[in-house]
Amino acid sequence: MRIIIDEDIPSELVPLFRGANLEVQHVEDIGLKGQKNGALLSALSGTCDIFVTRDTNLEHQQNLATYDLAVVLIHPLRLVIDQITPLIPAAVAAFSTARNTPSRQSA
Q: How much of the chain is in helix, strand and coil states, percent to nearest 5?
């Protein structure tokens, strides 16, 4: 399963998302950092299985059903590593059941 982590999640956390049968990359590593949401989702659609982001507006800005990927939304109270890290195990657990509707993991 191929997982792409959005730029709003620090790249140093990528190893924490890794697991058996998971190929995990950060958007920066694949040259897509700085892309607008629509262009980013279009580029990822059909090339990855899951997109992990903390962008709570994504589902309101884009018609996620038009993209061939699932979205896992991590929603920490603040964008700091100490608040994101505890949410990662739940996000990874959601990978096996994620579909084309956002799955929320909140702190």
A: 35, 20, 45
pLDDT in tens, 39-90: 999 999 999 999 999 998 888 888 888 999 999 999 888 878 999 999 999 9
| Of residues 8, 5, 16, the one with CA closest to residue 69 | 5
Angstrom distance (rounded) from CA 43 to CA 94: 23
- Residues with Cβ within 8 Å of residue 23, at least 6 apart in sequence: 1, 2, 3
Instruction: List the structure tokens of 74.
Output: 């991590």
What is the pTM assigned to this prediction?
0.88
Amino acid identity of residue 91, one-letter, is: A
The residue assigned the tokens 């903390």 is 54
